[in-house]
Amino acid sequence: MAAGSRPRHRILPRPRIALPLVLLLLAVVAWLSRAQLAEFFDFARDSTGKPEALQVTGPTASSSAPGHRPAAAFDKLSNRYWAPARAGTFTGHYVRASFEKPVRLHKLLITPGTSAKQDEYLKEARPSHITLTLLQESGERTTKSLRLKDQAGDQSFDVRGSDVVQVTVAVEDAYGARPARRPAIAELEFFGRR
């Protein structure tokens, strides 16, 4: 190179095929990992957002005492309750909630006994141990055992499930079990996303 002359800039050829290939590769990777991406976005929404109260449709039960239908456990009033028909038995009874569309379940609030008020709470038996069965839209079932405290008022439990269409709450044991008593549930509330 002669003194006083400028070096010529090397002009690289424009990537005519490289950029479209990279974009195509990224699109294929995104398509193949769409399930993981959906889970990531659901997790982010669950972690940052506040869960909403989920509406129950058509509650049912194994049986019901007169005046204590399964709908009483979902009416948002803690002075009415569901109880099974037969007194003196404390296992095998259940109340079942269905959802109109599949939901993403986060939390369960349960008020055991006949009321949230202490003086009324002890009138019937109170569930001490329950089993939740979550039914997904695909037909898959998940179970979870919960131990409740023997105290008036609501108790909160983290219950996670995706595409849940039905929840069965089965009584496994009870506090205050006596021959003339029934296990009572004043309120069941589910929280999550639709």
From TrEMBL:
NCBIfam families from the UniProt entry: NADase_discoid
Gene3D superfamilies hit by this protein: Galactose-binding domain-like
Protein's UniProt name: Secreted protein
SUPFAM superfamilies per the UniProt record, alphabetical: Galactose-binding domain-like
Chain segments carrying region Disordered: 50-69
Record organism: Streptomyces ovatisporus
Domain of life, source organism: Bacteria
Classification via InterPro entries: Galactose-bd-like_sf, NADase_transloc
